[in-house]
Amino acid sequence: MCADSTPLRVLLVDDEADFRRAARTVLERRGITVLEAANGEEAIERLRHRPPDLVLLDLKMPGRGGLEVLEELRASH
To answer: What's the gap between Cα 4 and its chain centre?
Structure first.
């Protein structure tokens, strides 16, 4: 939970659906709101709408990799 008692919002970015599913289960059990993106493009789109409190980012993905997403995130936030 955040300091104001709202659930922590995490964006989970990974191209492996099984990993996202397992991580989501663990995080949600702890009361964390989880958003998912399967690739860098989806992650950037989600970040534009409402930035999460935390981003868990896979560095090696097809297309726009994690480092590219991180650079764009740093530049825009």
So the answer is: 21
Residues 6+ apart with CB under 8 A from 2: 8, 53
Residue 57: beta bridge partners?
13
Per-residue model confidence as pLDDT tens digits over 12-64: 999 999 999 999 999 999 999 999 999 988 998 888 888 899 999 998 888 88
Q: Are 47 and 76 contacting, i.e. CB atoms less than 8 angstroms apart? A: yes
> Which residues contact residue 33 at a Cβ distance below 8 angstroms, ignoring those fewer than 6 apart?
7, 8, 9, 10
Q: How many CB atoms are closer than 10 A to CB 16?
A: 12
Other Cβ atoms closer than 10 A to 13: 25
Burial of 49 (0-12, 13-18, 19+ CB in 10 A): exposed
